[in-house]
Amino acid sequence: MNRLFNTNYNHRGLDFVLLILRICIAGLMLSHGIPKLEMLLVGGKIQFMDPIGLGDTATLALAVFAEVFCSVLLLLGIAVRLAVIPLMITMLIAILIAHGNDGLKEKELAIHYLLTYVVLLFAGGGRLSVDSIISHKSAKRRRSY
To answer: Using one digit for the tens of pLDDT, what is the confidence trace for 4-29?
Structure first.
């Protein structure tokens, strides 16, 4: 019973939770990004929200970069802290501009994504990530010199 109220955390458990969080949130965001990628690749007339004045195609390309490319990086645990920045910007645009006049119900999903990305920005990808493997290899190289 005391373990339920213990404030110490298990490093292995935390790394596993970060892995599950990365995989799930990246997979869910890919479900939003892949249809946008298809829209971009099909060609034809693109009609997409342009909140920052870059044009429909450029704005769609930026959304695809964040929602597909950065989500794949997140899934693999590569450059996690950098990968979440475009995703956070995309969610802020969704919250403040795309759904700016809407109620909480319409903003809720983007807020959940944003909060998850903030956690990953501070926590990183954990030890079960490519970042961790790269970090350990470079640390070993530095020690051997």
So the answer is: 777 787 888 899 999 999 999 999 99
DSSP class of residue 100?
T
Distance of CA 67 to the CA centre of its chain: 8
Whether the model pTM is above 0.85: yes
Is 67 part of any domain? yes
CA nearest to 77, candidates 25, 115, 32, 37: 25
pLDDT band at 137 (very low <50, low <70, confident <90, very high): confident
Would 95 be classed as within a structural domain? yes
* b/e 65-87 (16+ beta carbons within 10 angstroms → b): bbbbebbebbbbbbbbeebbebb
Cα(128)–Cα(126) distance, integer angstroms: 5
Mean pLDDT of the chain: 91
Domain that holds residue 103: 14-144
Q: Which residues contact 48 (CB under 8 A, 6 or more apart)?
A: 36, 39, 56, 57, 59, 60, 63
Has residue 140 got a pLDDT over 90?
A: no
Q: Which of 136, 138, 134, 131 is nearest to 18 (CA)?
A: 131
Q: How many domains does the chain have?
A: 1
